[in-house]
Each structure stands twice: as C-alpha cells, then as structure tokens.
C-alpha cells in the first residue's frame, strides 16, 4: 500500500514538473522584456537599450514593453514630451503602457493619454503576469 501511495505521488509530481518545464521551453524561443519606470525622462535610455537588445538578439528578439506608473504619470499627457518618445518607441518595437491605477490615483484624465499607448488596469500586476510568462524584467 505504501508503495502504491509513493508511486502515485511520484507520478503526479513528475507530471506537474514536466508541464512547467514545457511551458518555459515554449517561451524560450524569443527574448521578451518588460520594464517598469516612474519617469518619462527615462524613456530615452530605455528605448536605446531596446534598440541595442533588438540588434543583439536578432531573430530571437520578441516583445519589449515599458510600463509607466507612479507620481509623474501625468507627464504622459504632455504631447510635447511624449510624441518624440512614442515615435522612437514605435520604430524600436517598444510598446508603451500606462498604469491605470496610477492614472486614477493621481487623477489624470485617461482621455488625454496618447492614443498609441495602451492602458492596463494595474501596471505592477501586468508586470508580474508578464514575468510569469517568462519575460525578463527590471524596474527603474
């Protein structure tokens, strides 16, 4: 009876362990990145980094997302500041994302967020969800 129980437990652990490994292997063909920043001014070096990684990774370069959150989230509504970054981000294959939680907390009108930016409900949660999918992550 003990052998049967131990064998069953071992079999279940083996199945769950292999499933996790397979999921990681599926994501390993592309290098995906997510970056959380609190300052619009940091977009310049972030986009330059994305361009360098794209050149370095070649065909294995995947998705690159930048989540903007925090106290200075209102800067994204300043078209004079944001338009050059949006243009550079598009060329570099970088997706700019606004944290909806920060927009709400600091009472920023969501209609003034540039149309080319995606808004997620919670930027920190979005970051963790991407990390669970195998994205490489850093916060500035």
Summarize the structure.
Helices cover 51% and strands 20% of the residues. By secondary structure, it is an alpha/beta fold. The protein has a single domain, classed as DsrEFH-like (Hypothetical Protein Ychn, Chain: A), CATH 3.40.1260.
Question: Which secondary structure elements does this structure contain, and how are they paired or packed?
Answer:
Blueprint: H1 2-27, E1 31-37, H2 43-57, E2 61-68, H3 79-92, E3 94-99, H4 100-105, E4 118-120, H5 123-132, E5 136-139
Parallel strand pairs: 1-2, 1-5, 2-3, 3-4
Helix pairs in contact: 2-3
Would you write up a description of this structure?
The chain has a single domain (30-139), classed as Hypothetical Protein Ychn, Chain: A (3-Layer(aba) Sandwich). Helix content is 51%, strand content 20%. It is built from five helices and five strands; from the N terminus they run αβαβαβαβαβ. It has helices at 2-27, 43-57, 79-92, 100-105, 123-132, and strands at 31-37, 61-68, 94-99, 118-120, 136-139. The chain has a five-stranded parallel beta sheet with strand order 4-3-2-1-5, sandwiched between helices. Helix 2 links the parallel strand 1 (31-37) and strand 2. The relative contact order is 0.18. Keywords: Signal. Residues 1-23 form the signal peptide.
């Amino acid at each position: 009876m003990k052998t049967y129980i131990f064998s069953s437990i071992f079999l279940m652990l083996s199945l769950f362990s292999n499933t996790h490994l397979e999921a990681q292997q599926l994501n390993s063909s592309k290098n995906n990145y997510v970056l959380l920043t609190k300052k619009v001014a940091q977009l310049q070096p972030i986009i330059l980094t994305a361009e360098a990684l794209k050149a370095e990774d070649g065909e294995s370069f995947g998705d690159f997302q930048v989540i903007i959150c925090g106290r200075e989230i209102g800067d994204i509504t300043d078209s004079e500041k944001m338009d050059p970054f949006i243009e550079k981000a598009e060329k570099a294959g970088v997706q700019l994302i606004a944290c909806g939680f920060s927009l709400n907390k600091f009472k920023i009108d969501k209609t003034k967020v540039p149309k080319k930016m995606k808004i997620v409900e919670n930027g920190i949660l979005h970051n963790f969800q991407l990390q669970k999918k195998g994205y490489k992550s850093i916060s500035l």
